[in-house]
Write a structure and sequence with these properties.
The protein has 213 residues and is α/β, with parallel strands linked by helices. The chain is built from five helices and 14 strands. The strands form four sheets. The protein has an eight-stranded mixed beta sheet with strand order 5-4-1-6-9-10-12-13, with helices on both faces. The protein binds cytidine-5'-monophosphate (C5P).
């Protein structure tokens, strides 16, 4: 049984506005589909996206990081967690109950932000019921492997899939990805491939880890 997070999160400012990011959800959805294809029972916890639901996967549609964490916790126990979502680091403190209006003063409202829960870190550091294999992603624009190794130990996950999202790579929203798989044993540099191929390769590695491939 696997939990996969995918897509961006939307953090409400008022009933009609939100903070979001450019994540398409392609990589996370592809991983959910690839794990299901290998026979895993998959819960895909997905922020707003324009992708078709992958076949054979239970999809939980959420908007905010808080809802994503709650949906992941509700989907436990699981053997595998893959956190591929681009979770907003901050949400707005005190969502306005009504649409915010210009007050005529010429001064824009100040948006106070508070930090969101870190879903990968929370699942990695669960005391009881931690999934046996927790995989995170690291999108970096420089020192990709070094930063990602730090992230692996800081968050407490088992593997990190590090990808270079620097200007010109066209990873965000694109169909291809160049990744490095970082484990306690070391670093594997994978060739550039489609996000579907990265998902298939990762799912195969996960199955090998559990001795079922
Ligand atoms: O710290 P950073 O956002 O770069 O870490 C990326 C990894 O952490 C990704 O796997 C992402 O899905 C996960 N993450 C999370 N919850 C957050 C922030 C990041 O699960 N609030």
């Amino acid at each position: 049984r696997a939990i996969v997070t995918s897509g961006p999160t939307y953090e409400a400012i008022d009933p009609v506005r939100y903070l979001a990011n450019r994540s398409s959800g392609k990589q996370g959805h592809a991983i959910a589909a690839a794990l299901a294809q290998l026979g895993a029972e998959v819960v895909l916890v997905a922020g707003p996206n324009n992708l078709p639901d992958p076949g054979g996967v239970q999809v939980q549609a959420i908007e905010s990081a808080a809802q994503m964490l709650a949906a992941c916790e509700a989907a436990l126990p699981a053997d595998i967690a893959v956190c591929a979502a681009a979770v907003a680091d901050w949400r707005v403190a005190g969502e306005a109950g009504q649409k915010m209006k210009k007050d005529g003063s010429g001064r824009p409202p100040a948006l106070a932000l508070v930090e969101n829960p870190d879903i990968l870190k929370t699942l990695s550091q669960l005391n009881g019921g931690r999934p046996g294999l927790v995989v995170g992603f690291a999108a970096e624009t420089e020192k990709v492997v070094g930063y990602a190794q730090g992230k692996r130990t800081r968050k407490g996950c088992d593997w990190i899939v590090a990808n270079d999202v620097g200007a010109g790579t066209n990873v965000m929203g694109g169909d291809d990805n160049t990744v490095h798989l970082i484990t306690a044993q070391g670093v594997e540099d994978w060739p550039t491939m489609s996000k579907d191929a990265v998902a298939a390769a990762l799912a195969r590695r996960i199955a090998e880890h559990f001795g079922s491939a």
